[in-house]
Design brief:
Among the domains are: 120 residues, Immunoglobulins (Immunoglobulin-like); 107 residues, no CATH class; 60 residues, no CATH class. The chain contains 10 helices and 25 strands. A hairpin with a 5-residue loop joins β7 and β8. α1 crosses α2 and α6 runs antiparallel to α10.
């Protein structure tokens, strides 16, 4: 006989159904179907004798003598299937050929509890699958890549660094090209623990040397001027800063504060720390100015304008600027020239745009956010400003600091060049744009999406993880290769 197929009717369905002690379960279990009023079920049967490749045969299906669907036999196996809405309760299902001859009459029974059991079975099946996946996650080699951070990465305080692909992160934590944190951290605060932690990130062995390569000749800066004065011969080494005064014999040997310092100090040359980025997206956060909405020509004669500029977070830096426009001031260029003439502390970031709009701007600075606020004045209505209108000016931020090459920023076919259009700050990864001026009109506006390309050193990730694994008293001087 044919059968109705439901995604909920799996092996667990029949297991649960067997507990109901229904007399029809084992006798005519194929006649019992779930009642799914909001979902069609697929009816499937086979009629190999009716297969005709030249003239495909059409079958009609009826429920309680009412046609509900039809299907055409196109497969040599005689397979025929169609989606049908199953009614609640007992019903007769009849299959007829194209001539109306009855091929088969079947009895089915659609029950609600069968549907409920089907949902339960499906839920159990899904939960069982999840249980098996979670069980596999307990084995490092079988752990799903998307679960590495939640299960292990968080323990090492090591979220996926920006730009790392799944495999790179998996190798760093579980081991791949390097031993992985699961191995290096269990060596504790030993030399091997530190070396393996670095290698887990770089995939290359670092080189470890005695601090300052073993040179302990440290003298005062005036030793050459008074070489015979015992007071200039040496001093105690108490911190790493003192290690900057390094000389070689015949100067006097330093008096060491503690041999323990030398025992705990080391130079580490980190090989393979560089990584290239070619497609990082960066969204330009701000403009370098607040722009008047209304372009010239306008008449600002005898009108006033007051605005302020301050560094956000430091109210002591707030400076207010006042301007009274003389004689007919009819365009943005004249207005900007007047503002600059009456306020010598401002720069050419105050200018008129090519669209005739007045811009009051500042030069962005690394690590600072400036706020330009329109305060008051009788010129506001002419320019389209309202008291309190403001704009923040801030650097943009790359995902990674410690760049070792100039940064390239591209949008469409235009490339902006490090040192010409902006300045990158390797220590922080900031992008400080040169401001918009009358001569520098090509600065991309805020919200522009640019693609960044650069090479950087993974110092942030390496130092952070080494600090976790090394001994608290260890002193490491990094050299980046």
């Amino acid at each position: 006989m044919g059968a109705f197929l439901s995604t909920d009717k799996n092996g667990y369905y029949w297991i649960l159904l067997s507990y109901l002690a229904d007399e029809n379960i084992y006798v005519t279990d194929s006649t019992l179907v779930p009642n799914t009023p909001s979902k069609l079920q697929t009816y499937l049967d086979f009629y190999p004798a009716l297969y005709n490749p030249v003239l495909p045969q059409r079958l009609t299906f009826e429920i309680n003598d009412r046609p509900v669907a039809y299907a055409i036999i196109t497969d040599p196996s005689g397979m025929v299937y169609t989606d049908i809405g199953v009614p609640h309760g007992k019903f007769t299902f009849t299959t007829k050929d194209a001539a109306g001859n009855v091929l088969k009459v079947e009895a089915f029974n659609a029950k609600n509890y069968a549907m409920f059991l089907g949902v339960m079975a499906q839920s159990y099946d899904e939960r069982r699958t999840e249980i098996e996946l979670n069980k596999a996650d307990q084995r490092f080699k079988q752990m799903r890549s998307g679960r590495v951070f939640n299960i292990l990465g968080a323990m090492f305080d090591f979220p996926p660094p920006p730009g790392w692909d799944t495999q790179k992160y998996r190798d760093a934590v579980l081991g791949g090209c390097g031993p992985g944190f699961i191995s290096s951290f269990f060596h504790g605060s030993t030399k091997k623990g530190v070396v393996d932690t670095i290698k887990s990130i770089t995939c290359e062995d670092p080189e470890v040397f005695e601090a300052r390569r073993g040179v302990r000749w440290v003298v005062r800066t005036n030793v050459n001027a008074a070489p015979d004065d015992p007071g200039t011969k040496g001093f105690y080494i108490t911190d790493q800063a003192n290690m900057g005064h390094v000389f070689v014999p015949p100067h006097y040997r330093a008096v060491l504060a503690s041999e323990l310092w030398w025992a705990n100090a080391a130079d580490i040359v980190v090989n393979g720390s560089s990584r290239s980025v070619t497609d990082e997206e960066i969204i330009k956060k701000t403009n370098s100015f607040v722009e008047a909405p209304i372009p010239g020509p306008f008449d600002l004669q005898s009108r006033t304008l007051q605005f302020s500029i301050e560094e956000v977070g430091d109210p002591t830096t707030k400076t207010t600027y006042n301007t009274t426009f003389p004689l007919p001031t009819t365009d943005a260029y004249m207005a900007a020239a007047t503002i600059l003439a009456q306020n010598p502390g401002l720069t050419d970031a105050v200018h008129g745009s090519i669209d005739g709009l007045l811009r009051i701007g500042v030069y962005p600075e690394a690590g600072k956010v400036f706020r330009i606020t329109i305060v008051s004045g009788t010129a506001l209505s002419q320019l389209g400003w309202n008291p309190g209108d403001s704009a923040d000016v801030a650097p943009d931020q790359l995902d990674n600091p410690f760049q070792t090459t100039p940064v390239s920023l591209t949008v469409d076919a235009t490339t902006f060049i490090d040192g010409i259009d902006f300045v990158s700050v390797p220590e922080t990864g900031e992008i400080v744009w040169f401001p918009s001026t009358a001569l520098n009109i090509g600065v991309p506006p805020s919200n522009t999406v640019l693609v960044a390309a650069y090479t950087y050193q993974m110092r942030r990730e390496i130092i952070k993880e080494v600090e976790l694994v090394k001994h608290v008293n260890s002193i490491i001087n990094y050299e980046w290769a």
